[in-house]
Amino acid sequence: MAFDIDMIKKVYERYSTRVAAARTATGKPLTLTEKILYAHLSEGEAKQAYARGVDYVDFAPDRVAMQDATAQMALLQFMQAGRPQVAVPSTVHCDHLIQAKIGANEDLSTAKDVNKEVYDFLASVSDKYGIGFWKPGAGIIHQVVLENYAFPGGMMIGTDSHTPNAGGLGMIAIGVGGADACDVMAGLPWELKFPKLIGVKLTGKLSGWTSAKDVILKVAGILTVKGGTGAIVEYFGEGAEALSATGKATICNMGAEIGATTSVFGYGERSEAYLRGTKRADIADAANAIKEHLNGDPEVYANPEQYFDEVIEINLNELEPHINGPFTPDLAWPLSKFATAVKENNWPETLEVGLIGSCTNSSYEDITRSASLAKQAIDKGLKAKAEFTITPGSELVRYTVERDGYLDTFDQMGGIVLANACGPCIGQWARHTDDPTRRNSIITSFNRNFAKRNDGNPNTHAFVASPEIVTAFAIAGDLTFNPITDYLTNEKGEQVKLDEPEGLEMPIKGYAVEDAGYQAPAQDGSRVVVKVDPNSSRLQLLDPFKPWEGTDITGLKLLIKAKGKCTTDHISMAGPWLKFRGHLDNISNNMLIGAINYFNNTADSVKNELTGEYGPVPATQRAYKAHGIGTIVIGDENYGEGSSREHAAMEPRHLGVRAILVKSFARIHETNLKKQGMLAITFADSNDYEKIQEDDKIDIVGLTTFAPGKQLTVVLHHHDGTTESFAVNHTYNAQQIEWFKAGGALNIIRKQMA
Ligand code: F3S
């Protein structure tokens, strides 16, 4: 599977000088987060200190990981760059498209059939461009990355929000959109606002029923779903050091649920043990040689209030198991208070399904601790009262726990092993239920529990807990059960109690696997043909966008003047459209269908100036395109907030929209528009928004002298023959102006490669 030890050694070689330069630039001791970030500046050694939460900084990540749903557009775009190989080591993981229905083998074989064209495309494009390909069934992206690619002090981006999982091994790992992944694979720097820092000091030691999951469930309760926004969470203290690497990964994984940019732990004995256990002794040796750079400076941890923007302290000796939910992961209940909460809130007390595993919690330690409870249940004459499923995070873990007999134990308890894939965690779950709308309760060891996330039923009350608690609850079949205090009645009518779970951090006989599911790329991919069926409805090769014509843009029709909130979901809706995310033309049929038209307060109804009739936004835009007429979209405040979904920028570009003029942009969307060669401009005076009339013809003037910081002018030709004009602002720097002129950032890279 070829983790790249030479690349890692190169990263480590530069650590001393870069950390020293960062200390000089900032004039203070450094947190681990700062060390890693400053060691990955794309400019090289730090020449200045960056203001946290203020400055935008260019970084050079070491790796890229992509899951199969988001990889499609990322790689279709990457193909536009004309590079023979990816610029940094990259991998693709087939995990999101497998539906859980019957059991691992049947579900995997159905998925291979249903998603064949997507898998064939991803396999061939990976083969061609030097990307490691993890086949369906190999495992879930974050677990596979943790086992194979994460390394202390590294920096990676991944096209999935739980990419921070790799922070368990001391890596700054950040979830991004496909456009960012494409840029880094194409060799461009990656921009991030220098994050704020939250320090979490862990004292004491976990014991009994409490596990690493409870740390993050507690933190989520303290910080809430927004508390980590724009920040990196750094864990430290004796309690942090004592956690297993996989336990740390669970904590970092769920940092996504508090909105954190990422989370990270320092390098220590447990990290070293995990690296050696997963056959990466070379990395452990290399990391040991620069150990002092792979933790924050001692002064920082001695006086955290002085160096972090916020500090939280948790005493693990006192930490209770937690159950969070329903419907939000920050509603945190200590086990001792949960039964009362269930009754007071009238949540369905009968537990219908307990689900363990996922990318969050399927380590050897998690499985063995849960299996110890399953074993007790069998020995004590108990059968699981709720349905119980196990989703292994990787084939490595699945094979190893099967070899060691744990899957048998679950089987005896009535558990069903699902494929090594996302499955029920992302709604890919054909749940067996007599009424799919009934109020009901489930509990998972996953990370997210928003309404409909798991089974599409808004009345499913989903709770999140550790795998141990999920297993105990599944045995009891009752949400009001407290395994620490309560007895259960066994098949003989006896009162029995579950003992504390016990497990092993790593397998005594070592990890084993027959076929991990990895496919190495061709050494020379130049002759590999990327497989895309021209008749496919799910995949479509991209054509480069046209360059700017070299003149002012005149005579634009107004496509829509959007009123109020217009998020990336209004611009490019998710849900059923997601299956088209590898097909730009088909997914463009959702363009702006959620936006409210200012002139009739209706979604997806705009005036077609060619016919005078109202019709859907995409169809109207296609009519203009067919007549070679450019259009403009007008928007309100914070246009494009939400996700980093690049489709929201690509669709208007593809359908012939020339400019987006708004009161203000969400920054990521603004950058995505610029990357696609689109004109993204803002009203200098936001009152000018009112001047735009439905049947205006609109010019954008000043483009022949387009320059950073220099305003452009918008001229409105109203239907009554009058004209008015006003200034508009932009934030293009010199490089981004070149993107605009070339028709998109990738067109420039392609030219450089030619
Ligand atoms: Fe997959 Fe759920 Fe993790 S969707 S990547 S198992 S958060």
- Residues in β-strands, percent: 15-25%
Q: Structural class, from secondary structure content?
A: alpha/beta
Average pLDDT, rounded to a whole number, is: 96
The hetero compounds bound to this protein are: FE3-S4 cluster
Taking the alpha carbons of the first and last residues, their distance comes to: 31 Å
Cα radius of gyration in angstroms: 27 Å
- Count up the helices: 27
Question: What would the principal axes of the Cα set say about the shape?
Answer: globular
User: What is the fold named in CATH at topology level of the domain at 553-753?
Assistant: Aconitase, domain 4
Q: Level of helix content? A: 25-40%
Q: What's the total count of β strands?
A: 32
Strand order of the largest sheet: 22-27-28-29-32-31-30
Low-confidence stretches: none
CATH class of the domain at 553-753: Alpha Beta
Largest sheet: 7 strands, mixed, barrel
Could you give me the name of the CATH homologous superfamily of the domain at 553-753? Answer: Aconitase, domain 4
CATH architecture of the domain at 553-753: Alpha-Beta Barrel
Pathway: Carbohydrate metabolism; tricarboxylic acid cycle; isocitrate from oxaloacetate: step 2/2
Catalytic activity: citrate = D-threo-isocitrate
Domain Aconitase A/isopropylmalate dehydratase small subunit swivel: 558-685
Enzyme class: lyase
